[in-house]
Amino acid sequence: MNTDPIADYLTRIRNAVKANHRVVEIPASNLKKEMTKILFDQGYILSYKFDDSSVQGTIKIALKYNKETKESVIRKIQRISTPGLRQYAGANEMPRILNGLGIAIVSTSKGVITGKQAHRDNVGGEVLCYVY
Description:
The structure is a single chain. The protein is of the alpha+beta class. It contains three helices and eight strands; from the N terminus they run αβαββββββαβ. Strands 4, 5, 6, 7 and 8 form a five-stranded antiparallel sheet that branches. A three-stranded antiparallel sheet has the order 1-3-2, covered by helices on one side.
């Protein structure tokens, strides 16, 4: 039993990046699938595949590395809102990560979106994590 599946998702990605793995496999959920789509759309991962062969299913994520320096594109991936201390932000209070170079993933009433998109759509929500 995992009490914080989002933190587990982020930790698996963080550990795979530090170990220079090419692919990481994570147990799936709808929230994790949406977060994976955002990471792909923003260019932080190379590709992903949802495998629904088992009951829960898995997400296979191909990590992205810089060709010249062999460093990961993901410098830091940090959980913000935890089950013990939820962090919410209004539309005008959305955090800017590295002066706009990073992203905040936010769970809103319009679904899981980036902080910039939430500011544009004028919706607030729970700030799940920062990625840069």
